[in-house]
Amino acid sequence: MSANFNPLPSYVAPEILAAQAQLPPKSPSEFTSQLKSKLISVLFPESAALDFFCCTREGLYEMALSSFVQRDVLFCINGPLSQQWYDISKSLDIAADILETGYGKSFTESQLEKKLAEQNYDAVFLVEIDPFTGIYANIPALSGLIRKAAPDMLIVTDCSASIANVRPLKLGEETDILLASSEISLGLPPGLGIVAVGEHALFKALAAVGKGWYFNFAKQHLIGNTQPRPDAPYPLLHALDKQIDEIFLEGLEEKIARTKRLSEIFRAWAEEKAFSSLTDPQNSAPNFTVLQCLPQFTPDDLAEFLKNYDISVGNCPGEMKDTFFSVAHMNSITEKDLSHLFYAFNQFLAYYDTRSKVAKATIFRSITEKEE
């Protein structure tokens, strides 16, 4: 039995992979239009416009900066994903400011309020959940502060790691622009980007269409409304169509509740084993948990051991890579999958000893023999 607990790219269920094998639609424009309507109905009911881009999350970030930004912007950084906003803005020569805290700590409402009082920005960029820190940003509360400070300021939110696993944000009220790449919380293969905008953001984009051609929402949205996009990733769109059906059949609220239940089960086990979470409980995402390794092992030790059980967990980037690991418990992950992880992890904790290479080799050999 295999189990994939990687946060990025996340596990893709067999039925979603199989959906990609469908033939291209006979009427691409009709298929795309129907899929957009379905997506709006299930996940983005307040959106004024929605479009697809054939790109990764970084492409979506570049699109948002090219399409909706006219002058200074503020990036609220709570992990590696939001750090990419700033990195990409520098390559585009966009004047940017940051609100940053240490990984594992979320910036506070008072810190944001102070930042907004110091300068007037064209847009604020937020990441709702970072899978590598496990931080959940309370966008509704933050947007209230932003609306009070500057009603015309755009709020751009990346929900790639939160979509369909937490309550959907209200477009036009709690955020103006929602971005979602396919490979995290949607449980799809990489390569598809979704952009949903509220009425205020759409009017601003159409009034000042920004830079570039492909990575430009206004230009591509207008083109897409008049002719089929030749680059449309139809295998991924078929996979998305299937995933939206799965979400609808389970019920979005039920799926969110199931994700929360899985997180409670996993965190109860982690607490019992004396693991420390990177994120405090008040700001923890329900679909990812980032844990600090115990002194006797490293993330690489854990990954090597779990291979024997055909299990994978996530590595953390940068300064966290030698100390922390991330576990995704969402989408098609079940309680049975968690039980499989617990069994293998318990074996690891009981027998693994990094101080003895001979002992480690003996353990791996004995486990392999048992599995065979």
Description:
A hairpin with an 8-residue loop joins strand 13 and strand 14. The protein is of the alpha/beta class and 372 residues long. The strands form 3 sheets. It has a 7-stranded mixed beta sheet, with helices on both faces. The protein has 2 domains: 240 residues, Type I PLP-dependent aspartate aminotransferase-like (Major domain) (Aspartate Aminotransferase, domain 2, 3-Layer(aba) Sandwich), CATH 3.40.640; 121 residues, Alpha-Beta Complex (Aspartate Aminotransferase, domain 1).
Estimate the global geometry from the Cα principal axes.
Answer: globular
User: What is the level-2 CATH architecture name of the largest domain?
Assistant: 3-Layer(aba) Sandwich
Computed structural class? alpha/beta
Largest sheet descriptor = 7 strands, mixed
Q: Could you tell me the radius of gyration in angstroms?
A: 22 Å
Total DSSP E strands: 14
Report the average pLDDT across residues: 84
The CATH superfamily of the largest domain is identified as Type I PLP-dependent aspartate aminotransferase-like (Major domain)
- The CATH class of the largest domain is Alpha Beta
Fraction of residues in helix: 40-55%
Biggest sheet, spatial arrangement of strands: 2-10-9-8-5-3-4
